[in-house]
């Protein structure tokens, strides 16, 4: 049966890394005899906005709703369109409308990559950030008063619902129970944020009673960021609200060498809507157009997408291909500059696709 994938490159390096993800997916599809049917869309980009006055066509829900998955690059060209317009008009609409309430972001120190943290080896850093993805600090509830006067006031509320918190906690606890260490860390700030965060802690406490085999701890977000740097080996599954999860999921991958390798899966676990797979990084306007962006984050997204669609072996083969090329090191493999090499986006993508294709011959 063929899987229908909507491809939305967006802006900047999204356009450079998406073709490498497709190349790798096609290599996996050939090896595992999968039918992947890609359809490309030019909306959700700042150029589309400049031409149409909006980020998405009116019927985007109908256009995208029937796909099995969305493979997404990155959005944002702040010099052309303000970020809150381009992102609220695209990615954040997808997450909310398609109820992708889990944002799953692995942080793993891969073989061949040097962590900026002294003495850390592969195996020392291997955890997931499970980020709440549809509510929390990313609500659009609030407003401006007395605009343009010296009494100007801006208010934006944090919205946390019992259903919203419980469903992300349940996902995180289930994930922790499938991992050997069975450990879950909650990111909180209930010492300073006096209503929503104590409520978050209460829900964690109640959920933990259903999972007596999971070792649960919590840290306030400030010391948690410090512990990511000082003790990344402490973590296994880290569950966080939308904003805290956003911050942790750039910090975690930075500890693993470069944010260029980090993927994310915006998941609707019930499969009622398509899930969306995008790298953690953005459109990187500072390096766009030079063919030096690291394509690994976007390729790993392809692996997570195949796994989500039930093709675990093919997804694992893609990850094995990435690891094999990284392990070869910059003397052997065309690693991009963020990995200390001199390779280009397309050379690295090609090497990974070859490794995926040849996997069973190694
Ligand atoms: P960014 O992730 O785009 O870039 C941060 C830094 O990391 C830059 O120096 C960039 O060159 C580098 N970098 C990022 N990806 C890389 C890769 N694959 N290989 C090598 N280096 C890489 O973050 P930013 O600069 O804060 O944001 C730029 C734009 O992207 C903004 O418009 C922002 O809103 C948007 N953004 C979009 C998404 C998304 O669509 N999911 C995520 C983050 C930021
Ligand atoms: C991410 C990004 C987005 C977020 C931005 C671009 C709105 O940083 O996917 O991590 O904050 O969720
Ligand atoms: Mn982010």
Automatic annotation (TrEMBL):
Cofactor names: Mg(2+); Mn(2+)
Keywords: Manganese, Metal-binding, NAD, Oxidoreductase
Keyword NAD: yes
Enzyme nomenclature, EC number: 1.1.1.83
Any GO MF annotation of the entry: D-malate dehydrogenase (decarboxylating) (NAD+) activity
Alphabetical list of InterPro entries matching this protein: ICDH/IPMDH, IsoCit/isopropylmalate_DH_CS, IsoPropMal-DH-like_dom, TTC_DH
PROSITE patterns hit by this protein: IDH_IMDH (PS00470)
Keyword Oxidoreductase in record: yes
Reactions the enzyme catalyzes: (R)-malate + NAD(+) = pyruvate + CO2 + NADH
Family per record: Belongs to the isocitrate and isopropylmalate dehydrogenases family.
Name recorded for this polypeptide: D-malate dehydrogenase (decarboxylating)
Species in which this protein is naturally found: Kushneria phosphatilytica
């Amino acid at each position: 049966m063929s899987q229908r994938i909507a491809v939305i490159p967006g802006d900047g390096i999204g356009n450079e890394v998406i073709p490498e993800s497709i190349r790798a997916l096609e290599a996996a599809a050939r090896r595992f005899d999968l039918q992947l049917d890609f359809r490309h869309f030019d909306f959700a980009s700042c150029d589309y906005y400049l031409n149409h006055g909006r980020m998405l066509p009116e019927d985007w829900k109908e256009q995208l709703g029937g796909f099995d998955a969305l493979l997404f690059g990155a959005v944002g060209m702040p010099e052309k369109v303000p970020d809150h317009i381009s992102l609220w008009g695209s990615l954040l609409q997808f997450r909310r409308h398609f109820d992708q309430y889990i944002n799953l972001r692995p942080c793993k120190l891969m073989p061949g990559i040097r962590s900026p943290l002294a003495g850390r080896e592969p195996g020392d850093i291997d955890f997931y950030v499970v980020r709440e993805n549809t509510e929390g600090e990313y609500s659009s509830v609030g407003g401006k008063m007395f605009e343009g006067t010296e009494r100007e006031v801006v208010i934006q509320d944090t919205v946390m619902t019992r259903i919203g918190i419980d469903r992300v906690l349940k996902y995180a606890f289930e994930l922790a129970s499938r991992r050997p260490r069975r450990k879950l860390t909650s990111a909180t700030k209930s010492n300073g944020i006096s209503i929503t965060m104590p409520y978050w802690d209460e829900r964690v406490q109640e959920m933990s009673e259903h999972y007596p085999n999971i070792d649960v701890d919590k840290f306030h977000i400030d010391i948690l960021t410090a512990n990511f740097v000082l003790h990344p080996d402490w973590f296994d599954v880290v569950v966080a609200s939308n904003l805290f999860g956003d911050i942790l999921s750039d910090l975690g991958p930075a500890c693993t060498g470069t944010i260029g390798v980090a993927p994310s899966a915006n998941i609707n676990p019930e499969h009622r809507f398509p899930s969306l797979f995008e790298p953690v990084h953005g459109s990187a306007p500072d390096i766009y157009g030079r063919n030096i962006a690291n394509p690994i984050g976007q390729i790993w997204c392809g692996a997570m997408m195949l796994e989500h669609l039930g093709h675990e072996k093919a997804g694992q083969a893609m990850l094995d291909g990435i690891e094999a090329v990284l392990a070869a090191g910059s003397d052997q493999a065309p690693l991009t500059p963020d990995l200390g090499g001199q390779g280009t986006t397309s050379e690295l993508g090609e090497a990974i696709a070859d490794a995926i294709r040849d996997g069973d011959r190694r």
